[in-house]
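Task: sequence design from structure.
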């Protein structure tokens, strides 16, 4: 969906899942992401990696668009993707791309992660690039290692703020049972962490 509509939705579940904002080919030839490890936001930029996809003959229809199946590896995971040449762009969800059409469905081979397009609409809106002022710049590999170590720690499920030092908390509020640190909500009963990438 367009960024204006997305920003207006204030999707609580997306905030609590700490869904990254990712710009593919920004700046040119790079992938830039803003990701959250509460209460901090991290900014990572890295060269776009060319995924070696294997095109398969299997076909499907997603959102009324004819699609073709492909498989490839990214971020330490095997991915099954469906792309449509009716939308001739080399991009897809999250950090996936490089096929001869828009990726409208992608699943990890272990079935833990799934992205799927639910609607296609023509939106005439400039893509904006906004990063929280307090974002911490980090190398991608360093950030992934930190995120996986923190969220993958067994303490995270029972105490999701175990790693935050009290002296680092600038502000805290409790709204309808939800703890908000520095403007970032914390899910106090998180599910087991399943990283997208390693």
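Answer:
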């Amino acid at each position: 969906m367009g960024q204006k509509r997305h920003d207006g939705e204030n999707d609580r579940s997306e905030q609590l899942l700490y869904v990254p904002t990712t710009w593919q080919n920004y700046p040119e030839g790079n992938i830039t992401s803003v990701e959250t490890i509460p209460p901090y936001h991290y900014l990572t930029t890295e060269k776009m990696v060319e995924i070696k996809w294997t095109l398969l003959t299997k076909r499907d229809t997603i959102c009324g668009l004819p699609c073709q199946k492909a498989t490839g590896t990214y971020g330490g995971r095997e991915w099954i993707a469906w792309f449509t040449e009716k939308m001739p762009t080399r991009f897809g969800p999250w950090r996936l791309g490089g096929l001869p059409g828009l990726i409208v469905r992608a699943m990890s081979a272990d079935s833990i992660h799934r992205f799927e397009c639910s609607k296609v609409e023509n939106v005439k809106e400039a893509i904006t690039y906004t990063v929280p002022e307090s974002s911490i710049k980090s190398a991608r590999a360093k950030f992934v290692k930190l995120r996986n170590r923190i969220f993958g720690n067994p303490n995270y499920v029972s105490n999701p703020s175990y790693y935050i030092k009290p002296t680092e908390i600038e502000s805290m509020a409790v709204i309808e049972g939800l703890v908000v640190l520095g403007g970032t909500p914390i899910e106090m009963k998180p599910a087991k962490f399943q990283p997208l990438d390693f």
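Helices lie at 3-9, 12-16, 140-152, 155-158.
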